[in-house]
Each structure stands twice: as C-alpha cells, then as structure tokens.
C-alpha cells in the first residue's frame, strides 16, 4: 500500500477579510436593490472569515484597484492567463518547499520520479508541470501527468494516479501539486450563481509526496471510490469565455450531495469490507458551509466531527483542488491519533471522489 508521506501548503501574500471582499463586490457590481440586500446575507452566512488572493484589489477602495481598474473592466482571458503563468509556479514552489520541510525522513527533490500537477484555473502549454521541472531543476525525463479542469475533487483523482504509479513501481516517489488562482476569474455580474461563487472561492496551493515505502510514516491509502450524480451536471460547471472562466454553482448542490453521500459511503465501505464505526475522522471538502451541513445531516455526524473542514473554510475559503489537502494536513499534524479517515471532495458532474486513509 502506498502512503502520503507529507503535505505542504501555501497561500498568496494578500489576506482579505470577508467583509472587505463583500464591499469590493458591492462597489464593483453596483447591484440592483434586491441583490444589494442579498449579497451581505450570503457573505455573513458563508462561515468564512478570511480568504487569500494574488490580488490586493479586494481590500482596497475603488480608485486603488490595480488588476481590475477603477471601473472594474473585465480583463481578457489572455491577460488572466498571463498573470496565472507568472504567479502559479511561485505559489507551487512554496507549497512544495513546505511539503519537503514537513516530511519526517529527509527527502531530496531529485528523488522524485513522478510529477502530477493539478489545476482548473490556468491552462497553457507548456504548462505548470514544465515550469516546475525548470524551477526545481527536476530531471528532464521525469514522468509528468497533468490533471486539468476537474475542479475541487481533482486532488483525490491525482492521489489515485499517484497510488497507481507506486503500486506499479515500488521505487516510485510521486509529487502531487495542486494550485488554483480562483480569484483570477472574478466576473462582474449580478447573476445569483456568480454572486454565490464570489462568497466562497480563494487562492492556494498544496503539495504532497506519495511513496510505496512500507517503512515510512504517513497516511496509508486504503480505498478509492467515486460516483457521479448526473442529475446535477447543470448545477456545477466551469466554462471558458473571452473574459476568463465562468463558474456556475447553484444552491441545489448541497441538497444533491445530502441525497447521494450516504449511498456513496456505504458502497465504499462495503468494497473495503469495513463498517462505518471504523471511520474515526472525516475529511470533507469545505466547498461551502451548506455542503458541510448537508454532509453532517446525511451521515448523522457528531457536532465536532468536521472541525478541521470548518476551520479550513473559516480561514481560507474554498480554494478548489488544494482545499481537501489543507484539511488532511491539519489531520496529519496530530500524530497521536490513529484510525481510518474518510475523505471526499466534490466537483463538476456532479462528481463525488472519495478515499479511505489509515493513520
């Protein structure tokens, strides 16, 4: 069985209070009376205190906005992608360095045999994988894989690929890097879906190392299980446009997850041959407060069962793919705890991707 040996995280320099972002949205969108009343309600109910962004604009008054300009003119897709190429690699390197510093057994970056990069907020070729090979001086014939446009569940999909590499090659040491600049794609809109998205998303990066080394300490990967709720395809989507990526996120998503997740958990446990009682910890992707509440209700969890997920949501918001790794990192920091972790993340499809890990 392969193991997650360490997880590292990083965020951009600009840390914004949720209330400051709300004021930016009010100034930028100039909403009608109905949405001007709705927007503060959504922000105050979000369960988020702070979020990070590569931009300082979200804490500044109109007239000081650098990227979006005084009139909040929407930048072109080309401008956004140019900025992504400048910033994503730096943030990724910071997360990788934090990962290497967190690992119990000293690991040289040159020991990495496989590189998996994950993103849905910037797509270019050559892309983030090539940039990291150059920035970290990795071997030019390292095995590279890119996971793109899968959204918030993509980190677990990347872990599945890493696990397969390690099972096929006992000497494999796989580096997974998830980097998202979600705030890069802010859209000036009074559409309710756009307003809902603006309350949640943030920027961040997470990196982890997976190895088949049986003697190493870490989270042992036991079982992957995924399920698609096709009825929700229109409720969570990510489309390209001339002015950036357009996010669709409806309030039906938590209801759908609440309906589907218990069945998914039962199938996953049955496949591994264990009972619900053997799950000691729950790492749920904090896609939003309503999603966490839906999972709590459906699985009848104790009030503090999702403490790590709520904490990540409160302090970082939803960073898309890195977010579940932020939750798992918090769990790894408590080295005294033992038992099985059930981790799950959600994305377009609606896809529900899960993994059972053992401390």
Compact summary:
With 359 residues, this protein is of the alpha+beta class.
Identify the strand order in the major beta sheet: 5-4-6-7-1-8-13-12-11
The tally of beta strands, per DSSP, is: 13
Gyration radius over CA? 20 Å
**Class of secondary structure makeup:** alpha+beta
Task: Please give a handful of descriptors for the protein shown.
359 residues, alpha+beta, nine-stranded mixed beta sheet, two-stranded antiparallel ribbon, 10 helices, 13 strands, 36% helix, globular, transferase, Chalcone synthase, acyltransferase activity, transferring groups other than amino-acyl groups, Polyketide_synthase_type-III, Chalcone/stilbene_synt_C
Question: What does the model show?
Answer:
This is Chalcone synthase. Belongs to the thiolase-like superfamily. Chalcone/stilbene synthases family. The protein has 359 residues and is an alpha+beta fold. It is 36% helix and 25% strand. It is built from 10 helices and 13 strands. It has helices spanning 18-29, 33-44, 77-102, 128-135, 154-168, 192-198, 253-272, 289-299, 307-316, 323-332; strands at residues 3-10, 14-17, 50-53, 114-119, 143-148, 173-181, 203-211, 219-228, 236-241, 244-249, 279-284, 340-347, 351-358. Strands 5-4-6-7-1-8-13-12-11 form a 9-stranded mixed sheet. Strands 2-3 form a two-stranded antiparallel ribbon. Strand 9 and strand 10 (244-249) form a beta hairpin. Helix 9 packs across helix 10 (323-332). It is globular. The two termini are 13 Å apart. The model has no long low-confidence stretch (mean pLDDT 92).
């Amino acid at each position: 069985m392969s193991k997650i040996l360490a997880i590292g995280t990083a965020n951009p320099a600009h840390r914004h209070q949720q209330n400051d972002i709300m004021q930016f949205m009010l100034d930028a969108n100039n909403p009608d009376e109905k949405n001007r009343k709705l927007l503060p309600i959504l922000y105050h109910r979000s369960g988020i205190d702070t979020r990070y962004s590569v931009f300082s604009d979200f804490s500044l008054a109109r007239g000081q906005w650098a990227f979006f300009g005084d009139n909040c003119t929407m930048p072109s897709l080309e401008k956004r992608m140019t900025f992504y190429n400048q910033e994503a690699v730096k943030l990724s390197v910071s997360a990788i360095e934090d990962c290497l510093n967190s690992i119990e057994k000293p690991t040289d970056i040159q020991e990495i045999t496989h590189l998996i990069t994950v993103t849905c907020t910037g797509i270019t070729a050559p892309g983030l994988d090539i940039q990291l090979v150059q920035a970290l001086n990795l071997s030019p014939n390292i095995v590279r894989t890119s996971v793109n446009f899968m959204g918030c569940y993509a980190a677990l999909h990347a872990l599945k690929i890493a696990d397969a590499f390690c099972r096929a090659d006992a000497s494999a040491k796989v580096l997974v890097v998830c980097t998202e600049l979600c705030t890069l794609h802010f859209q000036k809109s009074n559409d309710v879906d756009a307003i809902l998205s603006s309350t949640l998303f943030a920027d961040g990066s997470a990196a982890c190392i997976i190895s088949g080394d049986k003697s190493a300490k870490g989270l042992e990967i036991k079982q992957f299980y995924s399920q698609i709720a096709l009825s929700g395809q229109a409720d969570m989507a990510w489309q390209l446009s001339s002015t950036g990526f357009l996010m669709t996120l409806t309030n039906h998503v938590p209801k759908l997850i609440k309906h589907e997740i218990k069945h998914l958990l039962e199938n996953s446990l049955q496949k591994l041959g264990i009972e619900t009682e053997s799950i000691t910890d729950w790492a749920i992707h904090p896609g939003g407060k309503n999603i966490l509440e839906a999972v709590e209700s459906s699985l009848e969890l104790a009030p503090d069962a999702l403490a790590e997920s709520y904490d990540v949501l409160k302090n970082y918001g939803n960073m898309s793919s890195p977010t579940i790794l932020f939750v798992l990192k918090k769990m790894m920091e408590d080295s005294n705890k033992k038992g099985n972790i059930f981790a799950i993340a959600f994305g377009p499809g609606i896809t529900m991707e899960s993994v059972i890990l053992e401390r």
